[in-house]
Amino acid sequence: MAADRPVVEQFLEGRRALVTASSRNLGAAIARELATRGASVCIQYHASEELATRLVEELRAETGRPHAAVAGDMSVPASVRAVTTKAESLLGGDIVILVNNAGPFSMTPYASLPESEWDSIWNTNVKASFIASQSVADGMRRRGWGRIVNISAGSAYLSNHSIYGLAKNAMIFLTEQLALELGPSVTVNAVAPGQIAESADDIAEFDPTFVERAIKHTPAGRLVMRREVAGVVAMLCSPGFDMVTGVTLPVDGGWRLNRF
């Protein structure tokens, strides 16, 4: 019964959000969490139209609010700009919450890394985040309120994940620079998840021992869940975090901490 459901604080009521790469996996969890908190959300996808459409339908049914989906290739600057424009058109106004989640993985050694792979990883992670943020910044400042959350990764604290680690480290610097430029009305923060439990099979294709070693090294004794990362993203958009900007929050159970 509806009366038995827990009450979820609607601190994003009336806000419009764009979450990149959100038809599945972590992006979908973030989109769902923002919608649960009251936002109208635009799902950005590249090839997964069916998944994006299904998620939009689910969010509409669950929340009774308008949500939308938009296609785009986040490795192409013109497409990134088109995505933000289309998202605002579909949702009926300025995007005031942007989650830069698009970020393909690579750990190809630099000595053998093709230039095209460098460009794809860098452009989708870093350049797309810059362009999307630039595209929505004026609208946020005009409305006097905005939240940008960049998705970095635990790989930012490693030195063996090649161009991906470099790109995720750059997301931390970009977060700090944007926070300086866009304040006081817009806050810009980042979240750096450790290895996500539901994506353990994906990393195992690159490094079969990574998950076991990560859990052993993590004080919390387990891997983080997508819903936990999504919850932190939503909280960064809440009133309780109005004075938090320019920070990167590792969500990894302490995995990044060095020990000897």
Question: How would you characterize the overall build of this protein?
Answer:
The protein has 260 residues and is of the alpha/beta class. The chain has a single domain, classed as Rossmann fold (3-Layer(aba) Sandwich). The protein is built from 8 helices and 7 strands. The protein has helices at residues 25-36, 49-63, 77-91, 115-143, 162-182, 200-204, 210-217, 226-236, and strands at 16-19, 40-45, 68-71, 97-100, 146-151, 186-193, 248-251. A 7-stranded parallel beta sheet has the order 3-2-1-4-5-6-7, with helices on both faces. Helix 5 (162-182) links the parallel strand 5 and strand 6. Helix 3 packs parallel to helix 4 (115-143). The longest helix has 29 residues, at 115-143. The relative contact order is 0.13. The model has no long low-confidence stretch (mean pLDDT 95).
Give a quick summary of the entry.
This protein is α/β, with parallel strands linked by helices and 260 residues long.
